[in-house]
Design goal:
It is a single chain. This protein is mainly α. Helices cover 69% and strands 0% of the residues. It has four helices and no strands. The chain has helices at residues 2-10, 27-50, 56-70, 75-87. The longest helix has 24 residues, at 27-50. The termini are far apart.
Length: 88
């Protein structure tokens, strides 16, 4: 029994967070923030690609401009359709 008490008394004292380091557990703060940002980016990417991607609107405007340049549509129709594309 005295040997056990002597061994416990000679053991180094544990200080800080569980004795491994002297700072706060930064991983408990950083990891959830990273996790939330990662999944938010995944959701934004999924929604954007589901709606047709980033280039869908500019492609529609390019097609509309080409049709106007060829004379397929007049100025009034061009402006009305361009306004419709701008609202979406």
């Amino acid at each position: 029994m005295s040997a056990l008490l002597a061994a416990a008394a000679s053991a180094p004292a544990v200080s800080g967070w569980a004795g491994w380091h002297a700072g706060p557990p930064v991983g408990f703060i950083v990891f959830p923030i990273f996790f939330i940002l990662f999944w938010a980016a995944v959701v934004v990417l999924f929604v954007t690609l589901r709606r047709g991607g980033w280039r869908a609107r500019s492609d529609a405007r390019a097609v509309l401009a080409d049709r106007f340049a060829r004379g397929d549509i007049d100025t009034e129709e061009y402006r009305a359709r361009l306004a419709e594309l701008s609202r979406k």
